[in-house]
Design goal:
Elements: H1 3-28, H2 37-55, H3 58-67, H4 74-91, H5 95-118, H6 122-142, H7 154-160, H8 166-187, H9 202-216, E1 223-227, E2 233-237, E3 240-245, H10 252-271, H11 287-301, H12 305-318, H13 326-333, H14 350-365, H15 374-386, H16 412-431, H17 435-440, H18 445-454, H19 464-472, H20 477-493
Helix pairs in contact: 1-2, 1-3, 2-5, 3-4, 5-6, 8-20, 9-10, 9-12, 10-11, 11-16, 12-13, 14-15, 14-16, 16-20
C-alpha cells in the first residue's frame, strides 16, 4: 500500500471515530439523563484515547515522511500539510493527558450545569481548576510548535484559528473596543428604536424556526434541529449536521437570532466539499471563518429591514392576531445597549463581551489568574470593558459553557468571525446588486450560492485568512464592521460619527 492510500484510509478512520465522539457529545447536551454523566465521561475518554493513539501511531509519521519527498498534486499536498500539522500537535500530547482532559471536560460540563442552576460558583471551582491545569499543561507542550517568542495562549488559538496570535489579536481587539465604545457612548441615553415583540408560544416559534431553516437553504434530509441549554451545531459525518436552538416565550428575538445563527453554521457544514471526504480537507478552515457564516446570516442578513419584510407575513400566518410591522421587528432587533449576557447581546456590544473573555484567558495562561480568582476578575473586566457588572454568578462568570468544556482559545473566534462577516457582507452587496430585494422576497439562494463558491467549497484546502482574502480582496474588517454598525444602528438612533 502506498503512503498516500494508507494516510487517507487512516484519516477516514479517524473521521469515523471523531464522528462517534461527536454523537455522544451531542447527546450529552440534548437528551442524556444526568445520571449517565460518569459513564459518558469514561466513554468520551476511551474515544479520545483511541483517536489520539491512532493519529499518533509511528506509521503515520512514516507515511508523512515518505510523502514529503514526492511531487504531489494540489489536493494531496494540502491534505499532507494539514495531516502533518495535526500529527505534530498530537504527538506532543501523551495519551494520559488526552484521557484526563476528556474526563475533566465531561465532569466539568455537568458541574457547570449544576453550578449555574444553583447560582453557586464554588461548586464549579475545583472542576474548573482541573480543566485549567490540564489546558496549561497542553499549552506548554504545544508551545514549541509556535516558534520563538510565542505567547502560551498562541498554542490554544492554533487549535481553533490556525495562524492567529496574541501579537496580532491584542492590538486589533483594543482598536475595536475603543471604536465600539464610541458608538455605545453616542447612543447612550437616546430612546431605543420603536418595536416590542410580545411573548410568543413555543409551538409557534418552533414552526417558524423550521420554516426559516428551510427558506435559508438548510437541508433537513441531511440534518435536524433540537433544543439545548446552550445552542450549538455539530457535524456527525457527511450527511448528518445537527443544529440546536433555544426557544424562549419571553424573548422571541433571542430565539430567532439563535436559530438563524446555528443555521449559518449548518449551511457551512452542509456546503463543505464532500468529494474531499477522507482527506481531512472536507471541513471548516477554522472557527473564525465558521463564525463568519453564522454571523453573516444572523446579523448582516437576519437583522436587516428586508429580512423582516420577508419574515413578518410568515409570522402573521402563525400568529394571526399579532400586530407587528416589519419596521417594528427591525427596531426590536437592532436595539443596542451595554448588557450582561453574551449570547443575548446586541450586534454592537457583543464583541466587548469577547474582548473581556480574551483578557481573562490571557491572564489564566500567563499564570495571573486561577479558578478562584475568576469571579472577581470577571466583574472587574466587565466593569472596565463592557461597562456593566453582574449581580449574580449565573449571569456573570458562569454564563458560558466553554470553560467547562475546556475550550480555552475559542472565544476570540467569535470576534474574528464578526470581522470576517462584515467584510463578506460588504463584498456581497457589490457581488449581488439586488441583494436586499431578493432578501425581502425570501430568495436567499444567490447568497448561499456565493458563499458556497467563495467559502464553503474550499473546505480546509487553505487556512482561513487566505480563503477570506481571496473572497473579499484587500479590506479592513474593523472598518467594515464599524461602517456597518454606524450605518444601521447609528442611523436608527439618530447619531453619526
Amino acid at each position: 500500500m502506498d503512503a498516500w492510500t494508507a494516510l487517507t484510509e487512516r484519516i477516514d478512520e479517524l473521521d469515523g471515530i471523531a464522528g462517534i465522539s461527536s454523537i455522544i457529545g451531542w447527546d450529552e447536551q440534548t437528551y442524556m439523563p444526568p445520571a449517565a454523566a460518569e459513564t459518558r465521561g469514561k466513554q468520551s475518554a476511551l474515544l479520545s484515547k483511541l483517536l489520539h493513539e491512532r493519529s499518533t501511531a509511528p506509521e503515520v509519521g512514516e507515511w508523512l515522511a515518505a510523502l514529503s519527498t514526492q511531487d504531489l498534486a494540489e489536493i494531496p499536498r494540502a491534505a499532507v500539510r494539514r495531516a502533518r500539522r495535526n500529527y505534530q500537535r498530537s504527538t506532543l500530547l501523551p495519551s494520559r493527558l488526552v484521557g484526563e482532559l476528556a474526563i475533566a471536560r465531561s465532569e466539568g460540563f455537568n458541574a457547570w450545569v449544576k453550578a449555574k442552576g444553583s447560582n453557586d460558583f464554588a461548586t464549579f471551582e475545583a472542576p474548573l481548576q482541573r480543566i485549567i491545569d490540564l489546558n496549561r499543561e497542553m499549552a506548554s507542550l504545544l508551545l514549541p510548535l509556535q516558534g520563538p517568542g510565542a505567547h502560551p495562549y498562541d498554542a490554544l488559538l492554533e487549535e481553533y484559528d490556525p495562524g492567529s496570535t496574541v501579537k496580532d489579536l491584542r492590538p486589533m481587539f483594543e482598536r475595536l473596543g475603543k471604536e465600539l465604545n464610541l458608538l455605545l457612548d453616542a447612543v447612550g441615553g437616546r430612546p431605543h428604536p420603536k418595536g416590542t415583540v410580545p411573548p410568543l408560544d413555543i409551538e409557534g416559534q418552533r414552526k417558524l424556526s423550521d420554516r426559516v431553516l428551510v427558506d435559508l437553504g438548510f437541508d433537513l434530509n441531511a440534518g435536524r434541529m433540537d433544543l439545548a441549554a446552550h445552542p450549538f451545531t455539530t457535524d456527525l459525518g457527511v450527511g448528518d449536521v445537527r443544529l440546536t436552538t433555544r426557544l424562549q416565550v419571553e424573548d422571541f428575538m433571542s430565539t430567532l437570532g439563535s436559530t438563524v445563527h446555528e443555521c449559518g453554521h449548518g449551511l457551512y457544514e452542509q456546503g463543505l466539499p464532500k468529494h474531499l471526504a477522507g482527506t481531512g480537507l472536507n471541513r471548516a478552515a477554522g472557527m473564525g471563518i465558521h463564525e463568519s457564516q453564522s454571523r453573516l446570516w444572523e446579523n448582516f442578513i437576519g437583522r436587516s429591514l428586508p429580512f423582516f419584510r420577508y419574515l413578518q407575513p410568515r409570522m402573521a400566518g402563525i400568529w394571526p392576531s399579532l400586530s407587528l410591522t416589519p419596521t417594528d421587528l427591525y427596531g426590536a432587533a437592532n436595539r443596542i445597549e451595554r448588557s450582561l449576557i453574551r449570547v443575548a447581546a446586541d450586534e454592537a456590544t457583543y464583541n466587548l463581551h469577547i474582548i473581556a473573555r480574551f483578557e481573562l484567558e490571557l491572564g489564566i495562561f500567563e499564570g495571573k489568574l486561577d479558578a478562584k480568582d475568576l469571579p472577581e476578575a470577571w466583574d472587574d473586566a466587565y466593569r472596565r470593558i463592557v461597562g456593566v457588572v453582574s449581580p449574580t454568578a449565573r449571569d456573570g462568570v458562569l454564563q458560558d459553557v466553554h470553560w467547562s468544556s475546556g475550550l480555552f482559545g475559542y472565544f476570540p473566534s467569535y470576534t474574528i468571525g464578526n470581522l470576517y462577516a462584515a467584510s463578506l457582507g460588504a463584498t456581497l452587496t457589490t457581488a449581488i446588486p439586488d441583494l436586499w430585494e431578493r432578501v425581502e422576497h425570501g430568495d436567499f439562494a444567490p447568497i448561499l450560492a456565493w458563499l458556497r463558491e467563495k467559502i464553503h467549497s474550499h473546505g480546509f484546502t487553505e487556512d482561513a485568512p487566505k480563503i477570506f482574502a481571496a473572497a473579499v480582496g484587500d479590506r479592513d474588517p474593523v472598518k467594515d464592521l464599524m461602517d456597518h454598525l454606524w450605518s444601521r444602528q447609528g442611523v436608527l438612533y439618530g447619531v453619526s460619527r
